[in-house]
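Hey,
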Amino acid sequence: MTVQTRELTYTHGDTTFRGQLAWDDALGPRPGVLVAPTWAGCTEFEKDQASRLAGLGYVGLAVDMYGDGVTGGDKDECAALLNSVVSDRALLQARIGAAADAVRALPETADEPVAAMGFCFGGLCVLDLARSRSDIAGVVSLHGLLMPADNLPAPEISAKVLVLHGYDDPMVPPDQVVSFATEMTNAGCDWQLHAYGQTLHAFTNPEANDPDFGTVYSATASRRAYRALDDFLAEVLP
């Protein structure tokens, strides 16, 4: 088994996106899994996640949501990048959809099913992928944003949905969690939500250590989340 990586470029409108693909060259066509990024953009973290997925037998794509591989260097830059996309949910949905189409067209996937996972902002991206597309097997949000899409007030969701959430996340308080659960139920989808107590935002990121901002790593919650993630992918991508 040898995990290979290469840059994958694709376009939407006038924008070129530069993600990183990872796959095991000892395997034939395998299901694809998108890795949607945090607000910082497609960094080494997302690329490592794609390689981890390749080691599990999937074709992983670290997704570029901003174009040209742009990443943010500090909180202000990251916030500006995030707001440029979140302010237009139709654009967000089109961009994550373009990544799904790019993966599905690859010889490494050869029309195998596609799922998606995402961290923080990326969690919102993959949930919007489920809200806007009927050809996605499943999506996983890890400490993701849960606000509904203003352009899709009553989505019908065929993808299976898993949300892995820190219950004490100040960016997604309990009332938003309840509203999200209501939305998923009304959408008729197969959904589940794991809430980890005593856990803040960004709990899977070993570098997160900013209690005042609400981002703190939790080794326990992270271990539990990855176990749930792997089990979910094994279920939706047989």
